[in-house]
């Protein structure tokens, strides 16, 4: 293992012992016969080793493309574990065309808003849309993908699936809490960026994504490639390599977590040394990051107001959901946004799908208009069709109290007083990371210096310049120290 590659090196065209363990598709592509639906579920959603019975909390989502004259898509959730494995096998026995499974675990519904845990990173490669690759065999494209990753010193995935017209590269990791989502998302974008030339789907990077189930078939693919299956892995099909997320992120992102903290501290120290005062926060929120933070604040507020169930009382639901849905319209694609709105409505108000669709239709309509490029007139100008709301307006609508701002640790939906408090807290933490003393320690040190200066001035007749040179500080610091010592000692 190298210092750069945080994984076990693997053969780019591995084989397994025993003819019964390997199979070739009609086009000559190698696949692992033993990586069926059971192994796929066990790799993505393994047992929890921290509990005595191995059971994990949450559900995974199954979906299937259907043609019943009403809908073209049906979806259902199953508790993670043995029930999900049995369900996968049953669905394939009943007809395995176009079956999908979620890559992550959720509390009750498939959606980022209801995420329970993260356990993998992934990139969907639609190489059939790229002229250079669309006529290539899946195995040949996979070999080129691995070569590209090796060139960039990026860890190889745990396994690669052929999905009929594309590939899915999956990096299995340990289970991560939902709070890891921001860094997880940065890793997603970085991996997709590296594999852009292979048709990396930048719209399929969210944590609520579903991909095809191994052993199922793709009805839209050519006949000799329609079966979904593993064509490459690290480790073995029943135990693919599982990465440590921290190591994976450090290898993929431009800076490691430790480097980011160090660079922030160094910049703050340089500014303070140059300007003589702590650096003020220079973080600016773009439209997308502003609304993403508003959405996070709304979730924190909802959980704070009702920590047991998270359900809002009548009178708060409509306004909260309107603001939350609008926040999603600025940060999600329309299809993803509608799914997330349904989940938020069930979580916070217990609304049915039809009820949430009816009540939030105005927000969805505005999002659809924005996605199509339609502008609306506002104050004599043509602007984006989506609703705009200032933080002060949202605070007023939801009647957010100062204590709620502090206790729920809100970041954007705060008043001026709380904003000043947060800035003071950031400066204190910045000084602490740089090893600076707190104010009480600084005052005590200055008082001791002042007493020594008064003693030397009386005993040896040293003036301010002499004292400054003796202690290696400025004359102004000497004056302040002596003044505080006189006041303290009467």
Q: Overall 3D geometry? A: globular
Give the radius of gyration: 29 Å
CATH class of the largest domain: Alpha Beta
Q: What would CATH call the homologous superfamily of the largest domain?
A: RepB DNA-primase, N-terminal domain
CATH architecture label name of the largest domain: 2-Layer Sandwich
The biggest sheet amounts to: 5 strands, antiparallel
Q: Level of helix content?
A: 40-55%
How many β-strands, per DSSP?
15
| Total domains | 3
Strands ordered across the widest β-sheet = 6-7-9-8-11
Low-confidence stretches: 1-22
Look at the structure and give the mean pLDDT: 83
DSSP strand content: 5-15%
**SS-derived structural category:** alpha+beta
Number of helices: 17
User: How far apart are the first and last residues' alpha carbons, in Å?
Assistant: 67 Å
For this structure, the CATH topology of the largest domain is Alpha-Beta Plaits
